[in-house]
Each structure stands twice: as structure tokens, then as C-alpha cells.
Amino acid sequence: MTDPAFTPDIEAINRIDAVPVILSMVKHLTGMRFAAVARVTERNWVACAVDDSIDFGLLPGGELVLESTICHEIRQHQQPVIFGHASAHPIFSVHHTPKTYGLESYISIPIIQANGDFFGTLCAIDSVPANLDEPAIAKTLTLFAQLIAMSLDTQSRLEATTVELSNANELGRLREQFIAVLGHDLRTPLSAVRMSADLLHSKTEDKRSLNLIAAIRNSSVRMGVLIENILDFARGRLGSGIPVQRKFVQDLEQVLQLNVAEAQAAYPQATFVHDLDLPMGVYCDALRISQLLSNLLSNAATHGSNSTPIVLKAFAEHDEIVITLTNHGTPIPAQLLPRLFEPFTRAEAEQSREGLGLGLYIAAQIAKAHNGTLHVTSDAEAGTCFTARFPARLHPSP
Predict the structure, then answer these.
(1) How far is it, in rounded angstroms, from Cα 106 to Cα 355?
(2) Which CATH topology does 247-391 take?
(3) What is the C-alpha to C-alpha distance for residues 23 and 36, in angstroms, rounded to an integer?
(4) Which of the residues in the chain have pLDDT under 50?
(5) What's the CATH number of domain 4-160, 3.40.190.120, 3.40.50.10860, 3.30.420.10, 3.30.450.40?
(6) pLDDT confidence of residue 4
(7) Is the pTM of this model over 0.70?
(8) At what angle do helices 207-233 and 135-203 cross, to 10 degrees?
(9) How far apart are CA 222 and CA 234, in angstroms?
């Protein structure tokens, strides 16, 4: 009965289509009537494939006592062993293996995998002498052994890749579930909080209570922004990217103006100036472009100086829409610029700031989803300028 521990090795050899041909060629080249591929370990000698014309009685899965074989020695020195006439050989005439199995001719080539692991041997035996002095025989069988080793290595890599692909698919499924759960399980209770706050506000006249309700509402709004940022981060980093639906937007300029008005209300200490000159009819996801600009405006108001205005410009250039936002203040450190659009970068750089540091990452992902780009320059004289570009028209896929 085959030891289950060696079933994978036997199956691996059987999956190599060339093995039966190799064993047949070994017999043909050597004139010997038994050839096999053996798995040889510290304790076991197991036949993985056999071509037997002398009724040696060994089948795939069959074992020999390891110490009774020469392969036990080959495993240690990892060199071929060849003799064509054991009874006339100075060493093997007294060796226990030929005597035990009644062998006169023997050849065994080690099978060594790319990582240096010793798998076993490609061997041939016979009870009659054979002419094995021709150097081409040893060279050919060595090539056969190398071919088997390479095939085993290929199988191992394929199996590892299959496992990685399966794990990646499972991970992708879990990511999508995570995004769905995150969206549902966080949004639902937050909506309840907002609705409860609105209901309390409509039924309360006490000034102190109204202030507390206002704080709850403001906190829930901030929480909602954080949740949306986390969701977009999950989609962009863990899922298939931030989704956009590019449609024909008649007046993108008005959308950007509303963004500026909202930013001015949210940051009354800042001064916003805009110069918008956009054509009528742009293909984009207006909500996502609005989100991109909101993130840039919030970033500028948070990190820029209140003594100079934040300047927004939007215009068409060579069939592209260009949106620039410039603010002054402390320049962004040069070492931070290459990583600025990576998630959590600003949060790491300025621990005292609120938020997760996802705003610029999400803005860059929105630009990318529009087949566009988002770049930044920053110095003390010109200030910090973010420039977003994306095609104004839809183009057919190649």
C-alpha cells in the first residue's frame, strides 16, 4: 500500500507527460530492461514511475528498503553511479545492493531541483551485463534527469501561482464585501443620528439644548465626510477604483461656483477668488469633479494662509478641462511632494490636523478615473498650486 505522504510526489511525476517516453528511451539507450523514477528521502525509497520488462515486481508507489539501495548513497554525495558488470567491478562486486537484488548492470542519475532539493533518481537496472562505457549514455540520462527536475519546478511554480490567484480572488471578494458592509453599516446608524438631531431641533426651544443638537448635527456631517472618504479609499485602494459616470454636463462652471460658495461658508476666515471660463457641455461626473474641488478647497483653507486669497481658475485648453487652485503659506516640504497623493500622507506629516489624510489621494483618484491627472507645485514665492486636467470630451476606447 502506497504511503499517503508520497502520493503528491507520485502524482507530480505522473503529470509529466514526457516521463513514460524518457523511461522507454533509457531502456533503449542502455539496453537494460527496467527503468524507473524514484523518490528518495532520508528514510524512504519509493517508485514514482516504472517501465519494467523483467518482472522486477515494483509498481508505482512500491517501496524498497532505503539502506538496501545505492540511491541511499547517491542522496548523500549527489553524483551518478554507473556500472555495467557488477560481478567484475572492483567495488560493486562486493556491494550489498547487486547481491541483494541480483543485479549486474546499474545506472542512477540524481534528480536535483532548482532550489537544490534532492528529489530522487532516474535509474535503470538489469540482471545481465550492459555496455555503459559510452559517455553519451551518462550525458543523455543526465539531461533526462534535468528535464524531470525542471518539470517538477514548473509544477511547483504553477501550483504556487494557482494558490496565490485563488487567495487573490478570495481577498478581492472579501474587499468588496468590506466596502459594502462599510457603506451600509456605517451610513445607516449615521442617518439615524442625523434624523434624530433634526427631529429634536424641530421640537426644542431651549438655547442650551439647541447648541448641543447643533454640535451633534455638525459632528454627524463630519462623520459622514469621513465615511465617504473611507469608502472612496477602499474602492480606490482595495476595490476596482473610484467609480465615475461621465455624462454630458451642460454647465460645469455653475457646479464649481457652488463648491466655492460652500467652501466660503465652511471656512469664513478664508478668502476665495475664482476665475471660471468653461465651455458649455463637458463630459464628466459632475459629483466627482465637485468632490475633487471640495477636497482641494478644504485642503487649501486648512493648510494655507488666511492673509492671502485662495485663487481658483478653470478653463479649457486643447480639448482638456484645466482646474487650478493656488494658495499661499508655508510651502509643502520637498520631500513630501512625491508622496502627497498617497493616502494618509498629510495626516502623518501634521499629526495635529483633523481628518485621515485621504482628501488629496481621493482627488487624484477622481482625476485618474476621468483619464486625467492631478499635479502640485509648491514654493514660497508662487505658493502651492494644484492642477487637475482631464479630457473635456469622451473618446472611444482603442
Answers:
(1) 75
(2) Heat Shock Protein 90 (3.30.565)
(3) 7
(4) 347, 351-355, 396-398
(5) 3.30.450.40
(6) 87
(7) no
(8) 160
(9) 18
> What does the pLDDT look like over 277-325, one tens digit per residue?
999 999 999 999 999 999 999 999 988 898 999 999 999 998 999 999 9
Cα–Cα dist 40/42, whole Å: 7
Per-residue confidence (pLDDT) for residue 35, from 0 to 100: 96
> Scanning the structure block, which residue is given the C-alpha cell 502520493?
7
Residue 217 carries which side chain, given as an amino acid letter?
Answer: R
Q: What was the pLDDT predicted at 171?
A: 74
CA 314/CA 304 separation, integer angstroms: 20
Q: What is the SS3 assignment for 268? A: coil
pLDDT at 312: 97
Q: Which long-range contacts (CB under 8 A, 24 or more apart) does 189-193 make?
A: 190/220, 190/223, 190/224, 190/227, 193/220
Cα distances from 193 to residues 17, 29, 227, in angstroms, run 66, 84, 14
Helix (H) or strand (E) holding 225: helix 207-233
Structural domain spans, the chain: 4-160, 167-238, 247-391
Give one DSSP letter per residue of 7-27, joined into a string.
HHHHHHHHT-TTHHHHHHHHH
